[in-house]
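Now for one protein, fold included:
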Amino acid sequence: MVQDVKEVNFEEQVLDCAKPVFVDFYADWCGPCKAMEPIVKEMAEELPGIRFCRVDVEQAVNVAAQYRIMSIPTFALFRNGKLIKSVVGAMEKEELLLEIAGH
């Protein structure tokens, strides 16, 4: 399951989470974001040790600014309240897994 996170609960849902959190920064109008949606959902089903969330950058402007989200989709991995890794752009599932694996 991929949980929608808003600006008001970002800290609670992402930064305060005990397990690693994968965040999909997206916008509804973004074609590449829509293309990545089923891939992110698949990953969420296959990786139960990671919480999967998505943040609409137009609804969470301050969060997007805080993490310098300039392009979407941006995928970010948080652990213990800290941004560990981020990657930008649509890609194959295997490539995305390689980008976040080991972090």
